[in-house]
Design brief:
This protein is an alpha/beta fold. Among the domains are: about 140 residues, 3-Layer(aba) Sandwich (Rossmann fold), CATH 3.40.50; about 170 residues, ANL, C-terminal domain (GMP Synthetase, Chain A, domain 3). The protein is built from 23 helices and 29 strands. The strands form 8 sheets. A 5-stranded parallel β-sheet has the order 4-3-5-6-7, with helices on both faces. It has a 5-stranded mixed β-sheet with strand order 25-26-27-29-28, with helices on both faces. Strand 28 and strand 29 form a beta hairpin. The protein is globular. About 50% of the residues are buried.
Length: about 650
C-alpha cells in the first residue's frame, strides 16, 4: 500500500514529514532570484517551515487563528501556509493586486490579526488598512528592501520570526510535533475567498480531507510522480494554485518552481520547461496573441510555412493526439512540421517537456483549445470550483473534446436538475462559508449536493458539457437560445479581441461590447502606418473598427453552422474606449466578467446598441494604479454586422430544452 494513502497522513504537516522520510534529498521548491535558481530539498524546506511555525507560535498564533498571506508566489509564503497549519491556524491567501477596500474586507471578515506579506508594497497597503480598521495588528514581511526606515509597531521581518522559532525550538524541542499530532483530516485546512462576481466574496472553508483526498485522486488520474515539476505563477489566493502548487506537490512529492517576477514568467517557463502546467484560458489566449503578433512580423516565407503547417496540424495533429488513424503522407508531413514549426514553437513557449496541461476557471474557446492540442500538447479542460476543492470533471487521455469538460472526477457524483443546473457531490465539497450559514444552506441540497450555478448536460459519451452560467443562459424574444459565454469565447479567439461581453436575453437580437487587445492591435496599426496616442484613440480608429467587424462577421459565420444558435448571431457591436479592469469593479481578480455590474455601468451604451443609434456617449469613473480616480468620456461608434443563414436544420435537444 502506498504510504501516501496512509489514513494517518491526513494533514499537510504530516505529509511534509512523510516526504522528508521518503524523498528528503529530492528538490521540493525552487525560486529564481537575481537571475539565479535556488533550490530547497524536502528536508531543507521542512526545516525552514518548522522554524517559521515555531516563530509564529512565539508571536502568539494559536489553533483556529486566521493568518493572511499577501504577495507573489514566493517559497516563504508557501512555507507560511504549512507553518500555520502545524499550529492548527488557518491560512487565508489574499489577491496581491486587490485594492485596499477589497483587501480590508477579507482581512476584517476573516478576523486575521497576523499577515505575512512579500515586500514593501504590500506592507504599505496593509498599514493603510490597519490605520482604518485596526487589523492586522502584526505584519511579517519577507523582502527587507525598502523597509529600513519603517518603525511602526507590529512590523517584523520574516527572517526574524524564524530566529524566534529557533529559540522556541531550542527551549521546547517537542512542542511542535505535539501540535502537529493534534491535527485531524476533518480540521479546517485553508480559507479561500470566492471571486465575488455577484457581491462580496465569501470565505470558503475547506478541510484537509477535502483538499488532500481530491488532490490524491487527481494525482492518480494523471499519474503524477515526484519526478514531475510545475511553475507556480498564478495568484496564491486562487484555489487552482493552492491545489496544483501546494496540495498536489505535497501528495505526489514533485517540485514547485517560483518565477522571479510576473514580468519574467515566460522566460522562467522556458528555463524550467515544466512537465505539468496549468493556466486559465486568459493565459493561453495571451500566449496565442503573442504568437500571432510574432508571426505577422516574420518574413513572408516564414509566415507561409507557419500557416501551411498549422492548417495540417488542425487535422493531423489533433487526430494523432487522440490516437486516431492518420494517413502516411500526413504523418510524414506532420513530422516535418514538428521539425520546422511545432517543435521550435513549443520550445520557445516552454512547453517542450509538458506531459499534461490543464485549463480551467472558465470555458476556453474551442479554436484556442484545438490550436495547442494540434501542436501535440496534451492540454485538457478541467471543470472545477473553489467549493469543490477544484475537481469536478476531468478529461481522460484519449477522450479529449473541445466542447466538453470530461467525465466526473474520481469520487465525484453529478446530476442535472430539472432546470438544467449541474449539481455535485464529492469528498471535496466545502464545509461551510465562514460566518454565513444562510449562504451555506442555500448552496447545498438536503442530500448533500452542491448547486454549481452552471447549466449543462451529459453527451452520449458521458462527458459533461457546460453551456454557461445557469443564470446567464437565456433566450431572445423569438425563443432562440442565447449563451453569452459561448459567443464571447468565440470572439476572444481572435488575437485582436481581449474581452467581450454579449447581451441578448429578452431582447430582439444579440449584441456585444468588445475591448481590443492593445498589444495585438497596436502591432497591427504600426505595420499599417496608423498613428495613435492612446488606447481610446486606437479603438476609435475607423480601420480598427473595420478590423473588429471582420472578427464579428467570422463569429456569425461560425454560429450559422449550428441552427440552434444561428438566431443568436451578433447584429450590432461597439468597441469600448477602455479596457475592462478589476480595479474598476468590471472584472473579478480571476478576470471573470462581472456581467450585471457592466450592464449597469454601461447602460447608455447598451441602450444605444438596441435603439438603432449610430453612436453612444458614455462618461465613467476609472481607478488609477495609485488609487486615485478620474473621469473618462467617449462618443463611441456602433457598427451593424451582417448575419448568415443557418446551415443545418435545428434540433431541439433535451439539453437545450433544459438550459432554457
Amino acid at each position: 500500500m502506498n504510504s501516501v494513502r496512509d489514513p494517518r497522513l491526513d494533514t499537510f504537516p504530516k505529509l511534509l514529514a512523510h516526504n522528508v522520510r521518503s524523498r528528503g534529498a529530492r528538490p521540493a521548491m525552487r525560486e529564481k532570484d537575481f537571475g539565479i535558481w535556488q533550490s530547497w530539498s524536502w528536508a531543507e524546506m521542512a526545516t525552514e517551515i518548522r522554524r517559521l511555525a515555531a516563530g509564529f507560535a512565539s508571536l502568539g498564533v494559536a489553533r483556529g487563528d486566521k493568518l493572511v498571506l499577501v504577495g507573489d508566489n514566493r517559497p516563504q509564503l508557501y512555507w507560511s501556509i504549512c507553518a500555520a497549519q502545524m499550529l492548527g491556524a488557518i491560512p487565508v491567501p489574499v489577491y496581491q493586486d486587490a485594492v485596499a477596500d477589497e483587501m480590508a474586507y477579507v482581512i476584517g471578515h476573516a478576523e486575521a490579526w497576523l499577515a505575512v506579506v512579500e515586500d514593501q508594497e504590500q506592507v504599505d497597503k496593509l498599514l493603510a488598512i490597519r490605520a482604518k480598521t485596526g487589523l492586522p495588528r502584526t505584519i511579517a514581511y519577507n523582502d527587507p528592501r525598502g523597509m529600513r526606515g519603517y518603525s511602526e509597531d507590529g512590523l517584523v521581518a520574516l527572517a526574524d520570526v524564524s530566529k524566534q522559532g529557533d529559540a522556541r525550538i531550542a527551549a521546547d524541542p517537542g512542542f511542535l510535533d505535539a501540535e502537529i499530532a493534534k491535527g485531524r483530516g476533518s480540521d479546517h485546512s485553508v480559507m479561500l475567498y470566492t471571486s465575488g462576481t455577484t457581491g462580496q466574496p465569501k470565505g470558503v472553508l475547506l478541510s484537509y480531507d477535502n483538499v488532500i483526498k481530491t488532490a490524491q485522486s487527481a494525482v492518480d488520474f494523471d499519474r503524477l510522480t515526484e519526478t514531475d515539476d510545475i511553475l507556480a505563477y498564478l495568484p496564491m489566493a486562487w484555489v487552482g494554485d493552492h491545489v496544483f502548487s501546494y496540495a498536489q506537490a505535497y501528495v505526489a512529492g514533485f517540485c514547485v518552481s517560483c518565477p522571479e517576477s510576473g514580468a519574467t514568467v515566460m522566460t522562467d517557463l522556458r528555463e524550467i520547461g515544466p512537465s505539468f502546467f496549468f493556466a486559465p484560458p486568459r493565459i493561453f489566449e495571451n500566449i496565442l496573441t503573442q504568437v500571432s503578433i510574432r508571426m505577422e512580423d516574420a518574413s513572408a516565407p516564414k509566415r507561409a510555412m507557419y500557416r501551411y503547417f498549422m492548417r495540417l496540424a488542425k487535422t493531423a495533429g489533433i487526430a494523432l493526439m487522440d490516437k486516431k488513424q492518420v494517413g502516411l503522407a500526413d504523418r510524414l508531413l506532420y513530422a516535418l512540421g514538428e521539425l520546422l514549426v511545432y517543435g521550435p514553437l513549443k520550445n520557445t513557449l516552454g512547453f517542450t517537456k509538458m506531459r499534461v496541461g490543464y485549463t480551467a476557471g472558465e470555458a476556453i474557446g474551442p479554436d484556442i483549445f484545438d490550436f495547442y492540442r494540434s501542436l501535440g500538447l496534451n492540454l485538457k479542460q478541467l471543470y472545477g470550483m473553489t467549493e469543490a476543492s477544484v475537481f469536478v470533471c476531468m478529461q481522460p487521455d484519449g477522450q479529449i473534446k473541445a466542447d466538453t469538460v470530461g467525465v466526473p472526477a474520481p469520487g465525484v457524483e453529478i446530476k442535472i436538475a430539472e432546470s438544467g443546473e449541474v449539481l455535485v457531490k464529492s469528498p471535496g465539497i466545502f464545509q461551510s462559508y465562514f460566518k454565513n450559514d444562510t449562504a451555506t444552506q442555500s448552496a447545498k441540497t438536503p442530500d448533500g449536493y452542491y448547486l454549481t450555478g452552471d447549466a449543462g448536460f451529459f453527451d452520449k459519451d458521458g462527458h459533461l458539457k457546460i453551456i454557461d452560467r445557469a443564470k446567464d443562459v437565456g433566450r431572445l424574444i423569438d425563443g432562440t437560445l442565447f449563451a453569452p459565454k459561448y459567443i464571447e469565447n468565440k470572439l476572444k479567439f481572435f488575437s485582436y479581441v481581449k474581452e467581450a461581453v454579449a447581451f441578448g436575453h429578452g431582447r430582439d437580437f444579440a449584441s456585444c461590447i468588445l475591448c481590443i487587445d492593445l498589444d495585438a492591435v497596436g502591432n497591427w496599426a504600426e505595420r499599417k502606418g496608423i498613428a495613435y496616442a492612446s488606447y481610446q484613440e486606437l479603438a476609435a480608429k475607423p480601420e480598427v473598427q473595420a478590423l473588429a467587424l471582420e472578427c464579428v462577421e467570422q463569429v456569425n459565420r461560425d454560429l450559422a453552422e449550428d441552427a440552434n444558435l444561428a438566431g443568436s448571431q451578433i447584429r450590432r457591436f461597439l468597441l469600448l474606449h477602455k479596457e475592462l479592469d478589476a480595479d474598476d469593479g468590471e472584472l473579478t481578480r480571476t478576470r471573470k466578467v462581472r456581467r450585471s455590474f457592466i450592464a449597469d455601468r454601461y447602460a447608455p451604451l447598451i441602450d444605444g446598441l438596441y435603439s438603432g443609434a449610430e453612436r453612444a456617449f458614455i462618461s465613467s469613473v476609472v481607478t488609477f494604479e495609485d488609487g486615485r480616480t478620474g473621469k473618462i468620456e467617449a462618443d463611441l461608434a456602433i457598427r451593424d454586422v451582417p448575419r448568415f443563414a443557418a446551415h443545418r436544420p435545428a434540433t431541439a435537444t433535451p439539453a437545450l430544452q433544459k438550459a432554457g
